[in-house]
Automatic annotation (TrEMBL):
InterPro entries: DNA-bd_pseudobarrel_sf. The keyword Transcription applies. This is TF-B3 domain-containing protein. One of its GO terms (cellular component) is nucleus. Coiled coil: none annotated. It comes from Gossypium raimondii (Peruvian cotton).
Amino acid sequence: MENQMQGRRLFSRRLIQSEVDRCVFFFPFMYVSEFFEFQEGRFFFMDVIDSLGKVWTVLTKFHTHEVIGNYVSIDWPQFSNEKGLKPNDEITLIARSLQEGSNGGPQHEFKVLIKRKIRLFGQDIWGEVMV
């Protein structure tokens, strides 16, 4: 059976407590550099599709920090609250290229997957959050 993630471009990491508290998610720019052109301080909206097919528009911003370098923040309070995100949830954004955008650059569509670890019969199991 073919791996469903094979051939797709994705970036993923686990949430920490401060991200859950602030309803914001951070990615080092090197994780997303193939999808976006870095412009410090630039805000833009990004649409992500959840596992139920609902489209969410989230605010994204580029930042520079002298110690940690360039990073991207994704501000998604409504998404975070409705999905009940918790520390250690694994967030994966999967990109699919769309046709060329109106500005001549490539556009991407992102699907967001949320996985949460639960303990079942003494075993840790990761399952997709389907809220």
